[in-house]
Amino acid sequence: MNNLKKEHPTLMNNIRLIATDMDHTLLTEDGKLPPKIGDYIQRLHNVGVQFTIASGRPIYTLQRLFEKEKNELAYICDNGGAVYVHGKNVYKSLIPVADYHEMIRFTDKTVDGHPIVCGLDAAYIPKADARFLPFYKTFYANVIQVDDLSTVTTEANKFTIYFPKNNSQDQYDQVFAPRFADRYSVVVSDANWIDIMNPGVNKGQGMRQLGAKLGVHTDQMMAFGDTFNDAEMLQTVKYGYRVANANPGIYQYADYVTGSNDDYGVLQVLDQVLAAHA
User: Fold this and answer.
1) Which of 29, 80, 144, 161 is the most exposed place for a label (fewest CB within 10 A)?
2) Cβ 146 vs Cβ 127: under 8 Å
3) The overall pTM is greater than 0.85
4) Rg from Cα positions in the chain
């Protein structure tokens, strides 16, 4: 499954930055991390390779998932809306309050999706959507319920719409892209999510922000993904991998393919990188 097996492993010995998406990429379909991922992160750290989590999830959720490794990791959070290195925020792109208020009104009036204001500190939802809390907390460890979402004025770098009917692609094509794509970065993050960020904000831009901070060129970068919010990231790096279970729509953005998330495809390639640095 791994195209880079055709190349000599030492061709990867210049890699200094590796980023991976979470859902359907690093995480199994059961939502579990692959075995011994902490050991991989430490071994990469020991040979000078920065391992990075690039996710639509916020920093406070990701750090809980990587409690032991959080100080060695970098994070591209909220689809590029914020970047952290070893626990320190080095970049954030905040959506103006008036803009996400417009998105709230539009969502409430136009579709049967459920809006979420993604603040840097927590996800804000209307109390009327409390029934979704168990599901939301998988992605947003801190959730604040409010009577009226339009009263929220927090620093936010992402606006998200949840579609319980798993029809986010149709909603993107027919509703949200026509309304917002000329002014914002609008992406389908999964069958039930649409994310809206500031224009130019995506995981690829997050990789460039992180590379500038660490002094790493895109030719020294590798990334893994499975769906449309990973496309720019896969195009930005020299070694862009899709997992075998990826959405066919992103095949064109990845030069390489590895095993599925359930076959620990990311670890298959990390083994090669570590061998090249030995």
Assistant:
1) 29
2) yes
3) yes
4) 18
